[in-house]
Automatic annotation (TrEMBL):
Transmembrane spans: none
UniProt keyword terms in alphabetical order: ATP-binding, Molybdenum, Nucleotide-binding, Transport
Domain of life of the native organism: Bacteria
Species per Swiss-Prot/TrEMBL record: Rhodococcus triatomae
Keyword ATP-binding part of the UniProt annotation: yes
Protein name: Molybdate transport system ATP-binding protein
InterPro entries associated with the record: AAA+_ATPase, ABC_SmlMolc_Importer, ABC_transporter-like_ATP-bd, ABC_transporter-like_CS, Mo/tungstate-bd_C_term_dom, Mop_domain, P-loop_NTPase, Transp-assoc_OB_typ1
Gene Ontology biological-process annotations: molybdate ion transport
Cited Pfam families: ABC_tran (PF00005), TOBE (PF03459)
Length: 364
């Protein structure tokens, strides 16, 4: 049984535009979010030792794994770091038990101890009955359970999960997610979970890190990042609208809110920690947006004239997207309302959202 680990990462790979500085506490599970090509895989490669950064230092529990200044680069198989990928990548010629036993055997354990470790971890992932089966005899969910057991049998201090549920069908994913939640929430090891699925982040992680263009765009608890996003990607994955710009603290008779990069003023409730002129974001939910064919009058609200770009049916509701300046904004309305308004791509309408529904906070 391993004890809780801590990790410090500082690494730069200029050719990939990658430059990350990150500290992870003992037993912490970090969801790594970001668009394709943002640098998520580079982070995993640097941590695992498969890619040496041009500059930087990685320290795990006081043990230096990488230090470019000192010429230190511990090879991948000696880092106590294990990777779990989208595909199980089991050895096709070995039964499940032998696949799991391979990890401790490669670490130097004897045959008997390795077999015992395989038995322990297959039992832990509820796959002991699969011990004698070859990979081709396993379903996707069963194979991923065996892959989890193999990763844990290596007794890693850091576990890297690269979209571990992406290749599973909808019937297998929930069970494997529940398994991973139990394994990761034990607090015994650090884990990084690369995912595009908000459910994975919510179910598995303590903290979320958003990487955009090779840099950390924001970091915080999963709840904070998804409910108060400061980056475009976090807003999209959370299903929220986000406009970036400068915070406005009253004056000029406009009230408080934010002036977007396109010069659009958005009324909103400004966080107490924001100062006038600070970089900020205005965030609001699509279901808070009403759609009108003509501009309404009434209480303080935001009225944006937009051209409908797309309509997407989502069960009993329709997601209507348009643009406010150069920023895409979505409204969520009932299918009946969409029909009554005769909405089609290219239609000119007004998106309306009350100021009280818009949260303005700092963009770190």
């Amino acid at each position: 049984m391993v004890t809780a680990s801590s990790l410090t990462v500082r690494a730069a790979v200029p050719a990939r535009g990658f430059d990350v500085d990150l500290e992870v506490g003992p037993g912490e599970v970090v969801a790594v979010l970001g668009p394709n090509g943002a640098g998520k895989s580079t982070l995993l490669s640097v941590l695992s030792g498969l890619l040496r950064p041009d500059s930087g230092r990685i320290v795990l529990d006081g043990r230096t794994l990488t230090d470019t200044d000192a010429g230190v680069s511990v090879p991948a198989h000696r880092r106590s770091v294990a990777m779990l990928a989208q595909q199980p990548l089991l050895f096709p010629h070995l039964a499940a038990a032998a696949n799991v036993a391979f990890a401790p055997r490669a670490a130097g354990l004897g045959r008997r101890a390795s077999r015992e470790a395989a038995h322990t971890w297959l039992e832990a992932v509820d796959a002991l009955d699969l011990a004698r089966r070859r990979p081709h005899q396993l379903s996707g969910g069963q194979a991923q359970r065996v892959a989890v057991a193999r990763a844990l049998a290596a007794d890693p201090r850091v576990l890297l999960l690269d979209e571990p549920l992406a290749a599973l069908d909808v019937s297998a994913a929930p069970a494997v997610r529940a398994l991973l939640r139990d394994v990761l929430r034990s607090g015994e090891r650090i884990a990084f979970v690369v995912t595009h699925d908000v459910l994975d982040a919510l179910a598995l992680a303590d903290r979320a890190v958003v990487i955009e263009a090779g840099h950390i765009a924001e970091a915080g608890t999963v709840r904070d990042v998804l409910s108060r996003p400061r980056s475009d990607f976090a807003a999209r994955i959370a299903g929220l609208n986000l406009l970036a710009g400068e915070v406005v603290r009253g004056g000029a008779g406009r009230g408080e809110g934010l002036t977007s990069a396109d010069g659009v003023f958005v009324h909103g409730v400004v966080d107490a920690h924001c100062g006038a002129g600070d970089p900020g974001v205005a965030v609001f939910a699509p279901h808070a947006v009403a759609v009108y064919t003509s501009a309404p009058e009434g209480s303080p609200r935001n009225v944006f004239e937009v051209t409908v770009r797309e309509l997407e049916a989502r069960g009993s509701v329709v997601l209507v997207t348009g643009a406010v300046g150069a920023t895409t904004v979505a409204a969520e309305i009932t299918a009946g309302s969409a029909a009554d308004l005769d909405l089609v791509p290219g239609a000119r309408v007004h998106f309306v959202v009350k100021a009280t529904e818009v949260a303005v906070h700092a963009r770190k």
